[in-house]
Amino acid sequence: MLSVPRDRAWRRLFLAQSIALVGTGLATVALGLLAHDLAGDRAGTVLGTALAIKMVAYVGLAPLIAALTHRMAPRALLVAADLVRAVVAMALPLVTEVWQVYALIFVLQSASAAFAPAFQSLLPRLLPAEEDYTRALSLSRLSYDLEMVLSPALAAVLLTRIDHPTLFLGTVAGFLVSAVLVLRTRVPQAGPRPEARAAGFGDRATRGIRLFLATPRLRALLPLTLAVAAGGSTVLVNTVVHVRDDLGRAARDVPLALGAYGAGSMTAALLLPRLSRRVADRTLMLPAAFASALLLTALAAATRLGPGSWSWPVLLATWAALGLAESAVVTPTGRLIRRSARTADLTSAFAAHFSLSHGCWLLTYPLAGWLGATAGLDGAALVLGAVALAAALAARRLWPAGDPARLAHVHTALGDGHPHLAGARRTGAGWRHTHHFVIDDLHDRWPLRPAGRGRPVRVPRRSGRPTMGA
Q1: Gap between the Cα atoms of 456 and 179, Å rounded
Q2: Separation between Cα atoms, residue 419 and residue 324, nearest integer Å
Q3: How far is the C-alpha of 397 from the C-alpha of 290, rounded, in Å?
Q4: Average pLDDT in the 432-441 region?
Q5: Would you state the pLDDT for residue 261?
Q6: Segment 335-366, tens digit of pLDDT
Q7: DSSP code of 41?
Q8: CA distance 109 to 126
Q9: pLDDT-based confidence at 111, cuts 50/70/90?
Q10: CA–CA gap between residue 438 and residue 25 (Å, rounded)
Q11: What is the reported pTM?
Q12: What are the residues facing 410 on neighbouring strands?
């Protein structure tokens, strides 16, 4: 059974996140009904555009907001984001035009693009122990999965007593309660170092992305996320078509299929804390990405055969397995980022991942829908399976099998007496030492060989200035 970390500050933040998620789930249901009121049979177009705006805000704004707010205390940033989202949710029932929905959704999702990376960056500060942090990541994943199940059910119950515009008040309440809980939480500060304050906006905005591109395991995380998005988009976009049109089943079976996907994801989240003590992240995440490709290919073959008495249980099993594989990739992601960045860079790193990962979904969402409509469900599954396979192969190539945290390297540009060289050994090439290696102001290039294998790689600083300014 998954145990809960004992840290009181983390528990309050986790409760704040969970309550805000329930509020967001209510808003999703209410937004669909609002779109129907405003646009009638064009409601699907309105919702599709709103989702596209959400993804564009996530992809484009997360690094920019992280750069703009780099001097804000984490608690102040979280509270500000919650208050902005509460105001927008309060305004949504008052709109009378579709363009107003789009404008408010953009503001709402911009605030979410500020909240999510800041929240993620606080977890490793609150829970320095690896086991506690892993459990926290699994619980966070569980909260997202449960929100997919509980929020629609809660909305259905509430709609028997209230009209749908009133549902937005539940969203407002969720964000306000979240803000209060954050205000009552003592969180650690991680302000920029003195030499980092002079860094320009462009440098801060691209810091996290440069960190990803320079770190092998983080470069591999991008195609891994693409493999997850290929499977997840197939489920979220084409489930209703598989169930209603291909299998000819009732509308009530659509949430059952989505529930199977969520159940698989929750199962992985429950198992991962214990499994991660025995299995390295690479050993766990790469097979899960290959499994997504295999499952999508099998789905294409089953769909091509046509419906039969076996089709419904096979679809449920496939959806559950895809949820399991997705969670096996997504849940350990926070540990990889934590391992690959210093504390002061965590917000930038999580913002970069937030942006880049949603870029993958921005690609696969329309691809799943367009292929399903033009090439058929089997064609869509086959193409997305090929995307997942190519992504898994790329991740395997980018992520070296030997990936220790401590790496030997030689500094050639640091002067004698530099504080970083304490304990280093003088060699003909420069100063050699071994430590936990991350890309930062003093290390702008990744060593090519792990410690203990051949000569260590030189780590110069180009132009005499940091290339990873904060």
Answers
A1: 48
A2: 46
A3: 13
A4: 85
A5: 87
A6: 888 888 877 777 788 878 888 888 898 888 88
A7: G
A8: 26
A9: confident
A10: 37
A11: 0.75
A12: 432, 458
Is pLDDT of 16 > 70? yes
Q: Indicate whether 143 pLDDT > 60.
A: yes
> What would the pLDDT profile of 191-222 be if each residue is shown by its tens digit?
444 444 445 666 666 777 888 888 999 999 99
| Residue ranges matching CATH 1.20.1250.20 in the chain | 1-187, 201-401
| 72 Cα distance to chain centroid | 22
399: number of Cβ within 10 Å: 21
Q: Are strands 457-458 and 406-411 parallel, antiparallel or unpaired?
A: parallel
Query: How far, in Å, CA of 137 to CA of 146, rounded?
Result: 14
Residue with tokens 């329930």: 22
Q: What is the DSSP string of 306-373?
A: ---TTHHHHHHHHHHHHHHHHHHHHTTHHHHHHHTS-GGGHHHHHHHHHHHHHHHHHHHHHHHHHHHH
What kind of fold does domain 201-401 have according to CATH? Answer: Growth Hormone; Chain: A; (1.20.1250)
Which pLDDT tens digit goes with each residue over 39-55? 775 665 666 577 678 77
Lookup result for tokens 């750069």? 67
Contact yes or no for 111/61 (Cβ under 8 A): no
**How many CB atoms are located within 10 Å of the residue 42 CB?**
12
- For domain 1-187, give its CATH number from 1.20.210.10, 1.20.1250.20, 1.20.120.530, 3.30.70.120: 1.20.1250.20
- What SS3 class is residue 454? coil
Distance, CA of 159 to CA of 147 (rounded, Å): 17
pLDDT of residue 134: 76
Amino acid letter at 205?
A
Residue 325 pLDDT greater than 50, yes or no: yes
Strands ordered across the beta sheet of 457-458: 425-426, 431-436, 406-411, 457-458
Q: Which pLDDT score is estimated for 464?
A: 37
C-alpha span between 336 and 339 (Å, rounded): 5
* Selection from 130, 74, 71, 145 nearest residue 334 by Cα: 130
Sequential DSSP letters for 198-261: T--HHHHHHHHHHHHHH-HHHHHHHHHHHHHHHHHHHHHHHHHIIIIIIS---TTHHHHHHHHH
The answer to whether residues 141 and 269 touch, using CB atoms and an 8 Å cutoff, is yes
CB 136 within 8 Å of CB 269: no
Examine the pLDDT at 279 and tell me if it is beyond 80.
yes
